[in-house]
Amino acid sequence: MISSSSHFSSLLFLRKLSHTVFVLFRMQGRWHLSRSMFSEYQKLAKEALPKMYYDFYAGGAEDEYSLKENVEAFHRITFRPRVLVDVSRVDLSTTILGYNISSPIMIAPTAYHKLANPEGEIATARAAAACNTIMVLSFMSTCTVEEVASSCNAVRFFQLYVYKRRDVAALLVQRAERNGYKALVLTVDVPRLGRREADIKNKMISVQLKNFDGLLSTKVANDKGSNLEALANEKFDASLSWEDLAWLRSITNLPILIKGILTGDDAIKAVEVGVSGIVVSNHGARQLDYSPATISVLEEVVHAVRGKIPVLFDGGIRRGTDVFKALALGAQAVLVGRPVIFGLAAKGEYGVKRVIDMLKDELELTMALSGCPSLKDITRSHVRTEREQLHSML
Ligand SMILES: Cc1cc2nc3c(=O)[nH]c(=O)nc-3n(C[C@H](O)[C@H](O)[C@H](O)COP(=O)(O)O)c2cc1C
Ligand SMILES: CC(C)CC(=O)C(=O)O
Fold first, then answer.
1. Which amino acids bring their CB within 6 angstroms of ligand 1?
2. Concatenated DSSP letters of 319-338
3. What's the pLDDT tens digit per position in 105-157?
4. What CATH number labels 78-393?
5. What is the ipTM of this complex?
6. Whose CA is nearest to atom 8 of ligand 2?
7. Domain boundaries, the chain
8. Which of 33, 138, 150, 237 is found 20 to 30 A from 177 (Cα to Cα)?
9. Is 7 considered catalytic here?
10. pTM above 0.90, yes or no
């Protein structure tokens, strides 16, 4: 239930439950509980999915400290809006690696979309096309690289995990290139799978992925805990290192982005090895718990890169205000993971489109209310970080 604030007659309290901000308000003599559209979709997804799948999508590693922090660190950043700026038109459009998109909100690579909806990644790709944005297809997708490519005309990037079987990684890269994917996103934060305790308890399944038919088996069936963890630990190449970027460049002409950078030091190395961009990410807090909230390290990375390559961002984006904050701190665009999956689980292609449109609408409003008619008008001085707020109190 989402209601217009103009009808509020009283506001009772504002409290955080789980990762969600709830407001209890009185309207026309009755009490109502408001939630963001994201939480509405999360709730619908929870109702629609078996517990094992919902926990897989929603969960994080170990204590889920970073999972909460990814979201809550945004709440500690406030705005410095400017007034009396002509915002009768607000332009959200931007360019990523030369591709024009309608807003700086892209779809993050996430595994196993068919567990959320029978149409799987095809539904997600069609929603991306309808929103005129970029989808990053996961290496662990349930639809094939070819099926997704032929389903719509969205600009698509391909996310890569490097298996011990390098020939399999190389083959998938070639298939992505042949099928019109425009960039590779090399994910570097999974030498082993993080300890996801819900998946261990639920004995999370690992299904055969069609992309690998005839190449290798991705199906694991044992009774000892998360089959996904067993799969990743068996197949992923934990020896992958900076030197291997030369190998990757030798097998493709596509631009390469590195996803999973959290420090200025690693950002400098990424620039040195000649990649075309980086994604500041802690993998949605599913890998190393107590890694920092991604928004809290974005600026360090942006400073280290010194504008040499684009810096993208993901982790905890739930509102248009979050997108604005990430842009103000130097990101060129953001990627969203769970909101897209919850949209997909709740309402298929339509749900994904709604979630993206909601974020776009909220970003547009935030820009108007902050005095920013275009993305280039969003500057560092439009936000106040927690550190700045603390300094101002000294
Ligand atoms: C269910 C799920 C599956 C994911 N699968 C992948 C994947 O296959 N490859 C990858 O690079 N990242 C994967 N990620 C991480 C996302 O790309 C992204 O970094 C993260 O979801 C961003 O955080 P958010 O969910 O708060 O938006 C996955 C995340 C989730 C939640
Ligand atoms: C199968 C997993 C490795 C997919 C993934 O990246 C994730 O679940 O976070």
1. 56-57, 70, 108-111, 138, 140, 159, 187, 259, 281, 283-284, 286, 314-317, 336-338, 341
2. SHHHHHHHHHTT-SEEEESH
3. 999 999 999 999 999 999 999 999 999 999 999 999 999 999 999 999 999 99
4. 3.20.20.70
5. 0.99
6. 111
7. 1-35, 78-393
8. 237
9. no
10. yes
